[in-house]
Amino acid sequence: MAAAAPPPRPAPAAAAPAPEPEPSYEYPRPPRSLVRAAVPEVFVARTVWHPERARRVALVEVGESGERREVHEGDVVGQMLVERISPSGVYFEHDGVAVLRRVGSR
After folding, report:
1. Residue 30: inside a domain
2. 38 against 16, higher pLDDT
3. Contacts for 72 with CB less than 8 Å, ≥ 6 apart
4. Average pLDDT, stretch 11-27?
5. Total structural domains in the chain?
6. Is 94 domain-assigned?
7. DSSP characters for 10-53?
8. Fewest CB atoms within 10 Å of the CB: 23, 39, 77, 79?
9. pTM exceeds cut of 0.70
10. Residue 23 Cα distances to 19, 20, 41, 47, 49, angstroms
11. What is the residue range of 74's domain?
12. Which residues, at least 6 apart from 73, have a Cβ–Cβ distance to it below 8 Å?
């Protein structure tokens, strides 16, 4: 009887493809003309907090004039939006950035 042929060998595994390089998340610094403007000067003299948002009030001084005015959540003071009034301060938004001004601090 003739010898049986050996079983076929499996084909060599294909080499795994090289991984793609990680994307770079470093962005160039924007030109100075696009850098955010300075936050306006605002002094919070006092706040009156209430569980109902519509009844919260803050007394603020804006800019160098020292003019005091009462503001509520949602009001705009100079270039800043009054986002939230808390017992200890006022949270403003300026140019997309949250700014906290505490009562009595300059």
Report:
1. no
2. 38
3. 54, 56, 57, 58, 82, 85
4. 67
5. 1
6. yes
7. PPPPPPPPPPPPPPP---PPPPGGGSPPPPPPEEEEEEE--SSG
8. 23
9. no
10. 12, 9, 41, 48, 48
11. 37-102
12. 53, 54, 56, 82, 83, 84, 85
